[in-house]
């Protein structure tokens, strides 16, 4: 038999699921057989269209802001209410303020907002998801669940004038390693996918602006990724084929070096 990337019988929560990487991941997880809950903040039309495309009986959109610990926990509760369990958490949401901001003049409010969305809410998601997975029995492959955090290459090399974003995503790398050490013995596998530049609404201004050639010059493949090229590795990490992978930072950046 040929190997398959199947998530049949699994329930997944994918944050930031209405657009970009999140929407591509929702589509791929549904194609793999998972029931999917995803959140959106303001893109109601896109969320409803995606739900219809993927099947409303097996796809549950939830309008939920993610900027606090409590927001994360509330979304997990909604996911469990929808399908009765939770096997996979993909923390994909995040903000990247597009305007360059020197650290010496960065407002406290920008720092707190970025960390609230990119880090605090992730803690709430992870905490509540872990508690739910720990109540569930091991599956046939010896796992209780999968956690995939979506960070960035900026988390590893830093990003001038975007210290808030880089710091928040850098924290996810340490969180991934901490979760792996703590949770792998319990059958919960935690990993991280770190994209480089991706063609999404969040990066559109930068990739279509005057500095685009500078960004693309750092990528040996010569282009930004398509969202589905990030969704694929996320899916892989949640299947039995990745059953011996835990605590890894999976770079998906077209060969871009992690320096400078």
Give an overview in words.
- By secondary structure, this protein is of the alpha/beta class.
- The protein has one domain: NAD(P)-binding Rossmann-like Domain (Rossmann fold), CATH 3.40.50.
- 43% of the residues lie in helices and 14% in strands.
- The protein has helices at residues 20-31, 44-54, 69-83, 108-134, 154-157, 163-183, 201-207, 212-216, 227-237, and strands spanning 11-14, 35-40, 59-63, 88-91, 145-150, 188-195, 249-252.
- Strands 3-2-1-4-5-6-7 form a 7-stranded parallel β-sheet, with helices on both faces.
- Helix 2 links the parallel strand 2 (35-40) and strand 3 (59-63).
- Helix 1 crosses helix 9 (227-237) and helix 3 (69-83) runs parallel beside helix 4.
- The longest helix is centred in the middle third of the chain and has 27 residues, at 108-134.
- The mean pLDDT is 94.
């Amino acid at each position: 038999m040929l190997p398959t990337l199947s998530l049949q019988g699994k329930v997944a929560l994918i944050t930031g699921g209405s657009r970009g990487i999140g929407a591509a991941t929702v589509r791929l997880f549904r194609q793999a057989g998972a029931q999917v809950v995803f959140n959106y903040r303001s893109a109601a039309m896109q969320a409803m269209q995606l739900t219809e495309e993927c099947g409303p009986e097996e796809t549950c959109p939830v309008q939920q802001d993610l900027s606090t610990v409590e927001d994360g926990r509330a979304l997990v509760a909604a996911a469990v209410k929808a399908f009765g369990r939770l096997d996979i958490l993909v923390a994909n949401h995040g903000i990247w303020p597009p305007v360059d901001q020197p650290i010496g003049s960065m407002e406290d409010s920008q720092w707190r907002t970025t960390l609230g969305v990119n880090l605090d809410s992730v803690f709430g998601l992870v905490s509540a998801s872990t508690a739910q997975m720990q109540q569930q029995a091991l599956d046939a492959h010896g796992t209780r669940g999968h956690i995939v955090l979506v960070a960035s290459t900026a988390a590893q090399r830093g990003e001038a004038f975007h210290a808030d974003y880089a710091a928040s995503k850098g924290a996810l790398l340490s969180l991934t390693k901490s979760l792996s050490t703590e949770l792998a013995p319990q059958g919960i596998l935690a990993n991280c996918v770190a994209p480089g530049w991706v063609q999404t609404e969040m990066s559109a201004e930068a990739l279509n602006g005057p500095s685009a050639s500078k960004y693309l010059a750092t990528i040996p493949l010569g282009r930004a990724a398509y969202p589905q090229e990030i969704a694929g590795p996320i899916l892989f990490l949640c299947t039995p084929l990745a059953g011996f992978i835990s605590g890894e930072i999976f770079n998906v950046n077209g060969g871009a070096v992690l320096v400078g």
